[in-house]
Specification:
The protein has about 190 residues and is of the alpha/beta class. About 20% of the residues lie in helices and about 30% in strands. It has one domain: Rossmann fold, CATH 3.40.50.300. The protein contains four helices and 13 strands. The longest helix has 14 residues. The model has no long low-confidence stretch (mean pLDDT about 95). Bound molecules: adenosine-5'-diphosphate and zinc ion (ZN).
Amino acid sequence: MHLMKDMGWIEVITGSMYSGKSEELIRRIKRARIARMKIQVFKPQVDDRYSKASVKSHDGDEAEAVAVPDSGILLRAVEKDTQVVAIDEVQFFDNGLVDVCRRLADQGKRVVVAGLDMDFRGQPFGPTPTLMAVAEFVDKLQAICIQCGNPANRTQRMINGKPALASEPTILVGAAESYEARCRSCHEVPR
Ligand code: ADP
Ligand code: ZN
């Protein structure tokens, strides 16, 4: 998968929350470092789930990252001799990220992105679906449904212990909310 010579490409790691996207991204970052590749890691500035300057998995794995406010600033931050560009939480970026990833891959860089494919309503989320379309490689991971134990591909948003309404905004900052991994049949979006 990662042996193509003199050519860049795009890899997408996607799935619901808790599906292991950050874990997998961190694994690929570590392996690129072992291979002595020059790598830069980015995340959107809006996400301060754990810390502003690292990619962190729910299991505690961590990799240093630079938080950037938009795709244009990300592009300008990539250094000429960087071989691998890793980006977490891509669903929170503007749609310009698609073109930025294309340009970086066209320059011969390996671009590894991770992010949610669907929002809490089960709708396509930000630039992720388009990135999946233009990528060379896509890995769609599944979590475990906390209701029934089946593989889960949806993210359930809970507000004060109840499923969030479809009319709630996609990104809630600082609300008393939580998220669960659920399968298609256990996922609830009251209207
Ligand atoms: P993501 O980036 O997709 O949200 P992470 O890589 O941060 O996922 O976390 C994956 C880890 O979360 C798993 O290895 C597991 O230890 C933990 N985990 C907690 N709840 C679940 C769940 N419902 N299904 C799968 N893994 C879970
Ligand atoms: Zn279920």
